[in-house]
């Protein structure tokens, strides 16, 4: 039995050997090799890459040749290998080694880069030990020709490769040699590497060099494609080894480094250092981090126990720095490390973190324990962090990990943000000053992919939120609770104002792909304000949301008791949807549509339901308005019914409309259905609203082409105004026929419109009779379009006619139009060209008045593959020229040249600017539409406007140049002008979204203001030095910097204002402009000083406060008035919306001088006003000043002007002192003064007689020329005579009255001579005439003498007895004491007088004379 079994086994073995030999022999045959090729192709292919092996030859398996190997992806072949050969020794495997004599290929061709492979599931880790590493000997690796097509690296190249290698797994010996050289251009990469374990010898010699434009530079994307040389060399034993690195990329970059290994007592010490300048080799978003010098350094020791002691390791670059030190056991993987990193401000991170900013950031911490589950402590501090409209002064974060006994890591993170800010003040108030947050999590042992969040708490003034549960990549199971959310905190995120509060509690269970989902929600909001009236009308008070939602698998959804209730709104939904059944119902009730839009009233009731199943879903819905109004027109019983079938398969539906609108029937019906061949049909459409009716039907094919017909007849468009909620007028009729011509859409339109008006737009007449083929491709037009009397957004189109004549070769087009009084003319031919279109523009012109811009020659504009190509578009522009040529699409290649373009051409686009000057320049734009590059240069010569010319400020010359790149445009510009001093604007602006970075520097001569001040008689001198920046975004720019005014002086000779030594500093930032300092001196040595701030908050009207302090300031010093004052005034409030002027001024001295000589001999001219309109007429000025003006015009005033005394009025015999307070209210254009200057004492010298003033008041009416109201009287010959002085100080009026009433000449006679006119002698009559002459122009000698003596009063007249002459002078010592001295012509007539004001109405008076006499008295005075 045993013998039989052994015999069977021997025969089986022999059979197996024979079978192997037969199979081996079959493989050597051509059919066998073909089968092997197919099998190898299948085994080598992957889901994303298909491998095709053809033409196996040679002796298998030791010497195999392959004719061709093709690699393909979804887009087809991308690489091929020709003439491959493998010669090796299979028997060497029995010696546990791989021995390859030759691995060769005649040609490897790479056409393009392969598509990225689809993401494949990661296989679970294998528990097997895998294939053991075997020694490998590769005697020869050679590829004669490697062809890289241009799409691979952006440049075609041909390479060759030779190499050999000997890798010993047992002894760890290594020997490697390779060389790659360019065959079509210079360039080479080569190297050798060898390591001998027995001696510890390590040799490295790697090098690369290529000229500019080489393959490595292209592959790395180096700007300018520089010449490149690089080397890495090292030699020595591991006890004393040195290596060196060198890299040079033309003038763009360089790097050098050194490394060393030395034997030390503990083991081996390793050191390395690299010094590099490589910023210009890096992508534009990363390059700023490495600008200038970058240094890397490290030092570590590896001891005999395989423990690595890291003495230091650091990297220092312009944008960051980092360092680490500590120890690491390579065997036990136990670490004890400390690390730190820092970043400066965000300036170098602008591209990596757009919209973010910070002042500084630091990270420091430790790592201890097994590196697979370490204990980590990290501390992060960020200062001045801001972004997306939010900011914080300081952000701190402490994070830790702690392993448990099973190797799991517990994570905790706690942080606090101090000094929270927001761009919107209300958002900042809602956020509060501080935010705190805490998070916990867990990392399971051995699988960081299963890390999960176990808790999160966030607390701010405006938000308290918590998450409890678990959340990881696979599932979420927890509860998210928001105790309070101030909705204002979300304003920057939604980019619109928002306020209100919300609370909600959400329970969530979900899988990673949300195929399993369970949500329960219970939420509430109140006092919501969005700024959208439709939303605020319903959700402005209290809104609640409750319910739950579940998803079970891909096709099963349940909604349970979902309810939303708000004021005037109720929404409900219940039911489920799945493949077996569908029963979902919803309802919506709106109590009053006026909450959505005030133009509509009435309630809306809506009901909807899904039934059937997801495979055959049915839907019904009804929306109704039982009773309401629209645009004030009644709506009754308006109902829209919808019925749909097979919604998820071949949907079809019908609708029906019924009701009345504005008392007229509103009806409609129609059907929608899917049809065979992926067609969609709109059937039996018939909608009528009053007199307007639309009918027809359309079928849309799978190629999105339509056939059918639509008609519209609306003799009175006003009938549909209530439905579109816009006032319409006019008539409109249209007939549209749709069909298909040679696979292209054809649309035939006939229509007309008359007197159509809608939404502020209007058309007097429009007609169209045209057929268009392929309207969304290359349209062919046959017909015409006419428009007359159109007004579109204020742009008036007087007339426009477009005509087209289509043919087999294209469409001839003409355009004749008059727009805003500009005549536009164009003609050309539009035709198909390949897969695109070509427009031959024969002529184009625009003419307005004498200004014309027109083409000088035909131009061709082509469009294909998303690219527009312009073949030299040349325009003659008012004697200048514009030339544009190139292409624009995914890639750009455009040039523009402008020469002597008159700026007066602006009249074509913006009439009324009246610019003058010329523009010249050129530009070249290349790159891609997403990342354009290029340069430009512009010159504006003698820029001016009529207003600028009249002011004398201009003209200006402007030059600007810059480059485009990295998504930005640089600007280097200078503005030159008569009053400008090296004013430049430099920096860059984003070509899309991004931050501005502009610097404005230079000087402005303040004389630029003088031409504008010329009409006021004022003049200013000085200089303003500007040093400003503009950052932020184009939509929200932030300006900052300084304006410094020096050497300033303001002179207003007309009003007697003279300020010099004016110095001021204004500083600005993104939030405010601050008057840091202001100072000026007045002519008497007094001073002005100011300070203040204006907030840059347009929504608040630019709030702020500016204060001016006055110290002994002589503000006015003219022939009419001298004013010296002290005090403080302020301008505060919203500077954009009538700020308020407040403060208190104390008048130290106010002299009002009445001219001693009035103009004489000038006759009033009889002026006849022609077309005077509302201009003033003689005598109206004073009345106009007193006219009441609107209370809201001008700047509100709240000023107190206090003048206890020292207000003097002098001239024409008047000598008076006044005092008092004025409360100035109202506005600057309509001031309201309460109080005034009342007379303290005064007299009137009249031809030797002194009259005492009984009334005196000075009133200011908005100018420095005050109104006078004085009455002086005396008694002579039983007649009380009065002299009344009224009118402005510059032209007073003097009247003479008496009691009893007498003629003015009689009053003068009684005053002068104590007798009537009839009793006067001829000499006395002449004296009266001379008196009259005095008041029409007299001498000012006494006043000049008073001023030269420096006294407050000077009196020359008769003594008290009337028997002799007398001279008196006086001066006020302070606010209450007046000292006077008199000297008469008689003996002992000198006298000293003292007046002491006890109160406003009571005065003590005293006098002593040379004769020893003394006088004391009490005076009392009340005005009534």
TrEMBL record:
It comes from the Bacteria. Keywords: Membrane, Transmembrane, Transmembrane helix. The keyword Membrane applies. This is Translocation and assembly module TamB C-terminal domain-containing protein. GO terms for cellular component: plasma membrane; TAM protein secretion complex. Residues 1078-1422 form the Translocation and assembly module TamB C-terminal domain. The keyword Membrane applies. It holds the Pfam family TamB. GO terms for biological process: protein secretion. It is a single-pass membrane protein. It is found in: Membrane. InterPro entries: TamB_C (IPR007452).
């Amino acid at each position: 039995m045993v013998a039989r079994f052994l015999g069977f086994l021997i025969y089986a073995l022999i059979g197996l050997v024979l079978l192997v030999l037969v199979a081996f022999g079959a493989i050597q045959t051509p059919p066998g090799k073909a089968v092997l090729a197919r099998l190898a192709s299948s085994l080598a292919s992957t889901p994303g890459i298909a491998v095709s092996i053809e033409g196996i030859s040679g002796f298998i398996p030791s010497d195999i040749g392959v004719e061709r190997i093709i690699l393909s992806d979804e887009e087809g072949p991308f690489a091929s290998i020709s003439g491959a050969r493998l010669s090796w020794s299979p028997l060497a495997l029995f010696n546990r080694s791989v021995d390859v004599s030759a691995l060769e290929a005649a040609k490897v061709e790479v056409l393009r880069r392969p598509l990225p492979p689809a993401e494949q599931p990661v296989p679970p880790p294998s528990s097997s030990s895998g294939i053991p590493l075997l020694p490998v000997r590769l005697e020869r690796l050679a590829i004669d020709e490697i062809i890289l097509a241009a799409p691979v690296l952006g440049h075609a190249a041909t390479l060759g490769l030779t190499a050999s290698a000997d890798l010993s797994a047992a002894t760890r010996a290594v020997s490697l040699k390779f060389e790659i050289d360019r065959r079509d251009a210079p360039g080479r990469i080569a190297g050798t590497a060898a390591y001998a374990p027995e001696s510890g010898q390590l040799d490295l010699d790697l090098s690369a060099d290529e000229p500019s434009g080489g393959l490595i530079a292209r592959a790395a994307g180096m700007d300018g494609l520089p010449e490149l040389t690089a080397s890495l060399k090292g030699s020595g034993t591991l006890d004393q080894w040195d290596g060196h690195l060198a890299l040079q990329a033309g003038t763009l970059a360089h790097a050098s480094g050194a490394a060393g290994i030395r034997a030390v007592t503990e083991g081996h010490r390793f050191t390395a250092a690299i010094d590099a300048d490589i910023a210009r080799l890096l992508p534009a978003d990363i390059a700023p981090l490495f600008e200038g010098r970058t240094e890397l350094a490290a030092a570590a020791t590896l001891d005999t126990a395989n423990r690595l002691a890291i003495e230091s390791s650091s990297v220092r670059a312009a944008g960051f720095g980092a360092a680490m030190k500590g120890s690491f056991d390579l065997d036990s993987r136990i670490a004890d490390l400390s690390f730190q990193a820092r970043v400066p401000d965000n300036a170098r991170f602008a591209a990596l973190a757009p919209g973010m900013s910070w002042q500084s950031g630091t990270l420091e911490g430790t790592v201890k324990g097994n590196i697979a589950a370490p204990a980590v402590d990290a501390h992060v501090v960020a200062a001045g962090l801001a972004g997306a409209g939010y900011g914080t002064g300081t952000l701190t974060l402490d994070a830790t990990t702690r392993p448990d006994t099973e190797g799991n890591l517990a994570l905790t993170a706690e942080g606090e943000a101090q000094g929270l800010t927001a761009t919107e003040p209300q958002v900042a108030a809602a956020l509060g000053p501080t935010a705190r947050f805490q998070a916990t999590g867990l990392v399971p042992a051995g699988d960081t992919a299963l890390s999960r969040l176990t808790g999160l708490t966030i607390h701010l003034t405006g938000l308290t939120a918590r998450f409890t549960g678990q959340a990881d990549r696979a599932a979420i199971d927890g509860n998210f609770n928001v105790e309070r959310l101030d909705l204002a905190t979300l304003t920057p995120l939604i980019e619109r104002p928002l306020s209100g509060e919300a609370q909600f509690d959400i329970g969530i269970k979900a899988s990673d792909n949300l195929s399993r989902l369970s949500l329960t929600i219970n939420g509430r909001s109140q006092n919501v304000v969005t700024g959208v009236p439709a939303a605020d009308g319903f959700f402005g008070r209290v809104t609640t949301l409750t319910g739950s939602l579940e998803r079970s698998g891909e096709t099963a959804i349940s909604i349970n008791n979902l309810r939303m209730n708000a004021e005037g709104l109720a929404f409900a939904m219940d039911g489920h949807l799945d493949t077996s059944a569908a029963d979902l119902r919803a309802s919506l009730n709106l109590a009053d549509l006026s909450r959505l839009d005030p133009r509509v009233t009435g309630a809306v009731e809506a009901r909807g339901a899904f039934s059937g199943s997801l495979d055959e879903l049915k839907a019904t819905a009804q929306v109704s308005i039982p009773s309401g109004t629209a645009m004030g027109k009644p709506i009754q019983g308006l109902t829209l019914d919808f019925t749909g079938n097979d919604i998820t398969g071949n949907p079809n539906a019908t609708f029906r409309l019924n009701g009345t609108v504005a008392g007229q029937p509103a009806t409609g019906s129609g059907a929608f259905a899917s049809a065979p061949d992926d067609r969609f049909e709109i059937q039996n459409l018939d909608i009528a609203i009053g007199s307007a009716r639309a009918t027809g039907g359309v079928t849309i094919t799978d190629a999105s082409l339509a056939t059918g017909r639509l008609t519209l007849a609306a003799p009175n468009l006003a009938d549909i105004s209530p439905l579109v909620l816009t006032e319409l007028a006019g008539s409109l009729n249209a007939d549209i026929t749709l069909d298909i011509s040679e696979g292209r859409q054809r649309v035939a339109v006939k229509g007309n419109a008359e007197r159509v008006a809608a939404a502020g737009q209007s058309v007097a007449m429009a007609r169209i009779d045209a057929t268009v083929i392929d309207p969304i491709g290359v349209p062919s037009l046959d017909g015409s379009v006419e428009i007359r009397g159109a007004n579109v957004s204020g742009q008036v189109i007087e007339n426009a006619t477009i005509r087209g004549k289509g043919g087999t070769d294209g469409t001839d087009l003409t355009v004749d139009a008059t727009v805003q009084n500009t005549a536009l003319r164009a003609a050309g031919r539009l035709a198909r060209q390949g897969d695109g279109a070509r427009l031959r523009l024969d002529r184009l012109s625009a003419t307005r008045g004498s200004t014309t811009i027109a083409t000088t020659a035909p131009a061709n504009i082509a469009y294909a593959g998303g690219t527009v190509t312009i073949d030299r578009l040349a325009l003659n522009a008012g004697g200048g020229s514009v030339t544009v040529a190139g292409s624009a699409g995914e890639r750009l290649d455009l040039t523009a040249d402008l020469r002597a373009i008159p700026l007066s051409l602006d009249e074509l686009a913006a009439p009324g600017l009246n610019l003058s000057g010329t523009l010249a320049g050129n530009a070249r734009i290349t790159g891609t539409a997403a990342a354009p590059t290029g340069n430009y240069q512009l010159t504006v010569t003698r820029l001016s406007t009529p207003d600028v010319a009249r002011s004398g400020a201009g003209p200006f010359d402007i030059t600007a140049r810059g480059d485009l790149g990295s998504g930005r445009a640089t600007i280097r510009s200078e503005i030159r002008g008569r009053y400008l001093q090296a004013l430049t604007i430099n920096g860059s602006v984003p070509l899309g979204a991004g931050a501005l970075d502009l610097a404005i520097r230079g000087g402005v001569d303040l004389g630029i203001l003088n031409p504008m001040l010329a009409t006021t008689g004022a003049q200013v001198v000085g200089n303003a030095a500007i040093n400003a920046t503009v950052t932020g975004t184009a939509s929200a720019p932030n300006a900052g910097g300084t304006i410094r005014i020096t050497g300033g002086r303001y002179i207003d000779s007309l009003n007697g204002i003279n300020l010099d030594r004016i110095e001021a500093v204004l500083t600005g930032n993104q939030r405010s402009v601050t008057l840091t300092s202001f100072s000026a001196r007045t002519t008497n040595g007094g001073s002005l000083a100011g300070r203040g701030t204006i907030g840059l908050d347009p929504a608040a009207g630019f709030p702020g406060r500016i204060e001016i302090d006055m110290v002994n300031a002589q503000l006015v010093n003219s022939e009419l008035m001298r004013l010296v004052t002290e005090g403080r005034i302020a301008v505060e409030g919203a500077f954009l919306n009538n700020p308020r002027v407040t403060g208190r001024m104390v008048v130290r001295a106010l002299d009002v001088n009445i001219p001693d000589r009035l103009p004489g001999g000038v006759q009033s001219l009889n002026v006849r006003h022609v077309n005077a309109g509302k201009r003033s007429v003689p005598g109206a000025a004073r009345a106009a000043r007193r006219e009441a003006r609107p209370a809201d015009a001008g700047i509100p005033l709240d000023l107190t002007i206090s003048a206890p005394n020292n207000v003097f009025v002098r001239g024409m015999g008047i000598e008076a002192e006044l005092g008092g307070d004025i409360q100035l209210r109202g506005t600057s254009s309509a001031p309201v003064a309460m109080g005034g200057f009342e007379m303290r004492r005064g007299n009137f010298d009249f031809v030797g007689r002194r009259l005492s003033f009984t009334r005196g008041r000075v009133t200011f009416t908005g100018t420095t020329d005050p109104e006078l109201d004085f009455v002086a009287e005396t008694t002579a010959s039983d007649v009380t005579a009065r002299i009344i002085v009224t009118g402005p100080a510059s032209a007073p009026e003097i009247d003479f009255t008496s009691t009893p009433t007498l003629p003015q000449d009689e009053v003068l006679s009684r005053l002068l001579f104590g007798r009537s006119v009839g009793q006067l002698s001829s000499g006395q009559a002449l004296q009266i005439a001379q008196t009259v002459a005095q008041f029409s122009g007299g001498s000012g000698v006494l006043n000049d003498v008073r001023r030269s003596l420096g006294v407050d009063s000077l009196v020359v007249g008769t003594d008290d007895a009337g028997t002799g002459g007398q001279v008196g002078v006086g001066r006020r010592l302070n606010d209450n004491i007046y000292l006077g001295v008199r000297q008469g012509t008689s003996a002992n007539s000198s006298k000293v007088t003292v007046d002491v004001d006890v109160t406003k109405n009571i005065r003590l008076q005293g006098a002593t004379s040379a004769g020893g006499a003394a006088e004391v008295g009490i005076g009392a005075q009340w005005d009534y």
